[in-house]
Write a structure and sequence with these properties.
- Helix content is 52%, strand content 11%.
- It has 41 helices and 19 strands.
- A 6-stranded antiparallel β-sheet has the order 3-4-5-6-8-7.
Length: 976
């Protein structure tokens, strides 16, 4: 459902625009069944007795009887036999029919059933017939009869053998000469209608028919208006006209959206087209002719947004791209003619359709055209008039733009998706229609399997499940979803399970055109559900005209197991793992491993299940989740070995190998090679570039890491964890504007999330913007669960030198908060000791530091090669006044760093050493260390962001160094 602003008696109210559940078209506002007129009509007509037992559902697909003979009659409609549906819209259906009384083939247009058709719709329908009936022209489709039957209005007209220009325009750009000749003929036809007092107002490719000789015929005068009469039905609830071909003044006066677009839209359009100025009204059709001409020349309309609102906003606020930029075969004169038709100011267009036709005919004859190109200064003035505020702002920023560095510009590369990939598809969460919520796993698992199969097709861009899961709840605006995910196509589906029977229903939709590309229902036993998944993936690939290689065909046809119970357990594991990815509730990951274990026990030859089991165990091992860490590492190795024995070269096995090398072995070089190999096998799997982004980041290859994160985000643009991880890469590089853009994208998905806002505050701190940082931290308190968010709050108070509030908050946390582990409590004691030390409370600092020491000394004895306990212990010793012990502990941690292959986590140990050296009075050594830190990308233990000149200036930790000229120079240097 979309909501549009509707003007009503000078006020603005919101009108809900519903869409047909069957076909997706706009529905009549008062339809009780949420169906469009065409589908209501089919429902109503199908209640009549069909001829020869053929129902209306067969109309759309009827072609012939298979013998090459006449198409059989499908049903009666008064004096007409309906033979074939040839068109449909929100208001009705057009059939090829035989008029029995005259034994002739006609086109019959029938409006939706009378009881649901509003008076406005009926008036417009009758006006269309009356307008066309007044015109006798060889290029205007003539009307034969207007009538009503059983509450359904209809009219019959000449049947034009051929097809719509729309079908030709969609395939490829038309040769320029052919396009010019055709539009010249249509323009002369429009001029004829204007001369007889009729405006068309909905000129578009779909309303131009081509006969067998390719000659154009203008039809569908549904929005026609008599020049001398102001229509009483021009303000219905829907947009009058088709947005991509609608003149700006028509959009503003007739469209509810037109009232809602930005105030910077064309001012001339606002006042244009007074009802009594026939000349200015006629150039509405000149604009429509130009828009059709533009599409014939370039293969696309001049403006096309993801929604009606966005299309109209583009129409009012932007200029069309030069046709020559889209099709180099177009010469300068033809481009000039086309753009003159599309001028925002009606007075700058051709004064009539005849003037357009004559200029096109001059071009065809190689004669000089009358139109003149718009100069650069004129185009600039027009843009400034539309956007005066933006123009003024740009003028003031020109000098600043020259100073923006390469790194910041590169950081802007990871931006929200915009252009829709025509070969891109998003598979939305399948609906569980089983009536039993326990069967939800089946819908989730089947969706995941279809995604996995599609990701193997090299010619498709497939959005990862992590992004599509956020559209779980209905209703769903497919156009907006497609825009957010940067794809043109959406797959919706449902799964219904009864006993051992499963029904899977899917429909593939082009969200840009709201057209159904393909739909199918599969009834299978659970034992044969694989075949349905394979057929669905293949049907999607064929519908999107993706090229399938032999390897693609083989991958889509592969059957993972012959044991239905094992596959059922495997699908449960997929569902648990997907839920874990979105919530990070550890029990879900453990449930996933249990399900995969069950699957391989039921079928020890189930290679894909072994691979998934290895990945899940390696993930648990990597993050040291629980006491089973070592056992998880062995479990990951054992599962991987079994997968390698069964299917060593499969994409799933290779992916599991990469994760084992990455998470369990920390062998980044080997992992990079493996993931690189898998990227060719799973071109649309976002996990692969994401993993490569993390591997290359740990190696210190940050430019490579950024490129891989870009690839992953293109496939998974709404994945919050991926967005935050990509932002982390930019933070380590000190490319803070790029990181903030990514965090804003996260907040667009999760508005007002406290942890995301705290991470934004952290960046503002690194830039020295404490006032901005404070705005994001107001709700962080002693009960904040995220340790990083709480630490950022304490850092803010320390940088503000608000020691009293920091001490109060830390003491409250230590007294009230339930810490998940003792090291977290120990770190809170360290923070409290530091604040007390900076505030001059040396006695209090010593007491707090002793509490921290009592926690970390036993941990260090048990894990002498683990750096984090040693770092915290060095800080505790420093606050206790044990400077030598503090320096030794910090130095010991930097020695241990050599065993840590992660570049981003090795450097922070040097930063910790610098802070300990500062407390110990070793100023020159500290300054030397800081000098190197400012040049290095890394993750900070103290700040989270790497150290910056702003942090050096603000943090009281560095106060002992402030008198040193070398330190003062570091504070003044620009960030790298």
């Amino acid at each position: 459902m979309q909501y549009l602003n509707e003007e009503n008696s000078g006020a603005m109210r919101i009108t809900a625009v519903k869409f047909c559940r069957k076909c997706g078209a706009a529905t009549p506002p008062d339809s009780p069944q949420q169906s469009c007129g065409a589908c209501l009509l089919e429902t109503g007509l199908s209640s009549d007795e069909p001829v020869a037992g053929v129902g209306l559902s067969a109309v759309a697909s009827a072609k012939s009887d298979g013998s090459g003979g006449p198409i059989p009659m499908l049903m009666d409609f008064g004096d007409y036999e309906l033979l074939q549906q040839i068109g449909r819209g929100g208001q009705g259906v057009v059939f090829r029919a035989r008029q029995k009384s005259l034994n002739r083939t006609v086109a019959l247009k029938v409006i939706s059933l009378g009881q649901w058709a509003s008076e406005a719709h009926v008036k417009r329908f009758r006006r269309e017939a009356e307008a066309a009936a007044r015109l006798e022209h060889p290029c205007i489709v003539p009307i034969y009869e207007v009538g009503e039957r059983d509450g359904s209005c209809y009219f019959s007209m000449k049947f034009v053998e051929g097809g719509q220009l729309d079908e030709v325009a969609k395939r490829e750009p038309m040769p320029p000469r052919r396009a010019a000749e055709l539009i010249a003929k249509v323009a002369r036809t429009v001029h004829y209608a204007h001369e007889h007092g009729i405006l068309h107002r909905d000129i578009k490719p779909g309303n131009i028919l081509l006969d067998a000789e390719g000659e154009p015929h203008l039809t569908d005068f549904g929005l026609a208006r008599l020049v001398e009469t102001e229509s009483t039905v021009t303000r219905t609830l829907e947009v009058l006209g088709t947005p991509s071909y609608m003149a700006p003044e028509q959009a503003r006066s007739n469209s509810p959206q037109g009232a809602a677009v930005s105030s910077g839209a064309v001012a001339s359009a606002k006042a244009a087209s007074p009802p009594n100025d026939a000349g200015l009204m006629r150039v509405i059709d000149v604009y429509g002719l130009g828009a059709v001409f533009y599409q014939l020349l370039t293969g696309q309309p001049p403006f096309a947004g993801g929604t009606t609102y966005e299309t109209i906003k583009l129409l009012l606020d932007t200029e069309p791209r030069q046709p020559r930029l889209l099709n180099p075969k177009i010469d300068r004169d033809l481009s000039t003619i086309c753009l003159k038709c599309l001028e925002k100011d009606p007075k700058r267009r051709y004064s009539s359709a005849l003037a357009l036709a004559e200029d096109l005919e001059r071009w065809v004859k190689h004669e000089p055209i009358q139109a003149r190109r718009t100069g650069i200064f004129t185009r600039g003035r027009k843009w400034v008039r539309r956007k005066p505020a933006v123009a003024a702002l740009i003028a003031s920023l020109v000098a600043l733009a020259a100073a923006i560095g390469w790194n910041v510009w590169k950081g802007a590369l990871i931006s929200p998706p915009s252009a829709l990939a025509t070969n891109g598809i998003a598979v939305l969460p399948f609906e569980n229609l089983s009536g039993n919520p326990d069967n939800a796993y089946l819908a989730e698992g089947i969706q995941d399997e279809i995604l996995t199969l599609l990701a193997k097709v090299a010619d498709l861009k497939v959005i990862s499940r992590t992004s599509t899961q956020r559209y779980q709840n209905k209703p769903r605006n497919l156009a907006e979803i497609a825009k957010q995910l940067a794809v043109a196509n959406i797959l919706e589906g449902s799964v219904q399970k009864a006993a051992d029977q499963v029904r899977v229903n899917v429909q593939l939709i082009n969200a840009q055109t709201d057209s159904h590309l393909w739909a199918e229902t599969y009834d299978r036993k659970l034992t044969d559900i694989f075949s349905a998944e394979s057929e669905i993936a293949k049907g999607i690939a064929e519908s999107l005209q993706a090229k399938l290689t032999g390897r693609d065909e083989q991958a889509l046809a592969a059957k993972p197991t012959n044991n239905p119970e094992a596959y059922d357990a495997y699908l449960r594991g997929l569902a648990f793992e997907a839920r874990y990815n979105s919530s990070h509730a550890l029990d879900l990951l453990w449930k996933a491993t249990d399900s995969y274990e069950q699957a391989v026990q039921l079928d020890p030859k189930f290679a894909v299940a072994w691979a998934r089991l290895s990945r899940a165990n390696a993930s648990i091992y990597s993050d040291r989740y629980d006491a089973t860490t070592e056992a998880r590492g062995e479990g990951a190795k054992h599962a991987l070995e079994n997968a390698q024995k069964l299917q060593p070269n499969s994409a799933e096995t290779q992916l599991a190998l990469g994760y084992y090398q990455f998470w369990a072995l920390s062998d980044y070089g080997a992992a990079k090679v493996t993931f690189g190999r898998v990227s060719n096998m799973l071109p649309s799997n976002s996990d692969v570039p994401w993993a490569l982004g993390r591997v290359t980041r740990r190696e210190g290859h940050f430019d490579q890491s950024v490129a891989y994160f870009e690839q992953a985000l293109a496939l998974d643009p709404r994945n919050v964890e991926l967005l935050m991880d990509a932002a982390f890469t930019y933070v380590t590089l000190r490319q803070f504007p790029a990181a903030l853009k990514l965090k804003d994208r996260v907040l667009d998905i999760m508005p007002n999330d406290l942890d995301v806002m705290a991470s934004k505050a952290n960046i503002h701190q690194a830039q020295g913007n404490l006032e901005d940082a404070a705005k994001f931290l107001s709700e962080i308190d002693e009960q904040t669960a995220n340790e990083d968010s709480f630490e950022i709050k304490i850092n803010q108070l320390r940088l503000e030198r608000n020691y009293g509030e920091a001490v109060r908050l830390l003491q409250a946390r230590l007294a009230q908060f339930h810490f998940a582990a003792e090291p977290e409590r120990g770190n809170a004691w360290v923070q409290l000791a530091l604040i007390q030390y900076l505030a001059g409370d040396t006695a209090g600092a010593k007491v707090s530091a002793e509490q921290a020491r009592n926690i970390f000394e036993p941990l260090y004895r048990d894990q002498p090669d683990n750096e984090p306990p040693l770092v915290s212990l060095s800080q505790a010793y420093a606050m206790m006044g044990k400077k030598d012990a503090a320096v030794k502990a910090a130095e010991r941690a930097t020695v241990l760093k050599r065993n840590n292959r992660d570049q981003t986590f090795r450097v922070p140990l040097e930063e910790n050493l610098a802070s300990i050296q500062t407390v110990a009075g070793e100023n020159s050594r500290a300054i030397s260390t800081i000098t190197q830190l400012l040049k290095t990308p890394y993750y900070s233990f103290n700040y989270i962001t790497p150290i910056t000149p702003a942090l050096l200036r603000l943090d009281p930790i560095w106060d002992p160094l402030r008198a040193d000229p070398a330190f003062q120079k570091l504070c003044e240097e620009k960030q790298h």
